[in-house]
Design brief:
Largest sheet: none
Order of helices and strands: HHHHHH
Radius of gyration: 26 Å
Number of helices: 6
Shape: elongated
Number of strands: 0
Structural class: mainly alpha
Strand content: under 5%
Helix content: over 70%
Amino acid sequence: MNADHPGDGAVHDPALQQLAVFIRESNQILADWDTYSDQHTDLDGWPHDGHAYGLRAQRRDADTWRAFARVRSGAKNMLATAETQMRRLPATAIQPRWTYQLGRLHSALDQIVVLRADWLITRDGLSPSAGPGNAEYDDARAKRNGEAWSYLDEWASAGEVLLEIHRAAERQTPPAPGPVSTPAPPAPAGHAAAAKR
C-alpha cells in the first residue's frame, strides 16, 4: 500500500479506517456520477432527459449519505483528536493547509448534524403510512440527501487531512522499546570447577 492514498499505511484506529473507506467510496460515487453526467448531457451541460438525470443525481446523493453514515458518529471525535495531535507536532511537521481544512470539516459536519436532526423531525411528522418506497417519505429523504451532498463532498475532499495528521503524529511517536535481553547469570563456582575437570 502507498502512504499517499487514503487509509494506506498503518492506520489501526477503526474510525480512521472507516473514514478511509468513505473517502474511497465517495470518490467512486463521484466518478460514476461524472461519467453518467458526461454521457447524458449535451455540449452545454443540459441533460437529455431531465427526469432521469434528476433521479440519477438523487441516487448519487443517497449513496454518499449512506457511505458517510459509518463515519458520522465518530466524526467529531476524529476532528478533536486531529486538533490535539496537531498541537503536539513540531511546527516543521505541520502543513499550512491543515488548519483551514479542519475548519471546513467542522463547518460541514455542523450542517450535516443539523440536516440529520431536521430529517428525524420531518420523518416523525410524516403520515403513519409513509415509509421507504412511499413517495412522501422518499421525497423528504431525497431532499435531505440533496441538501447534504455538498457537505458530504467536503468530507470526501478534505477528510484526508485527518489521515495525514494521524500519520504525522505516528511518525513523531518514538517506537516502543523492544525486549531487553539480560545476560545469563554466571554459573555457580562449584559448577565451573567441575566443568574444568
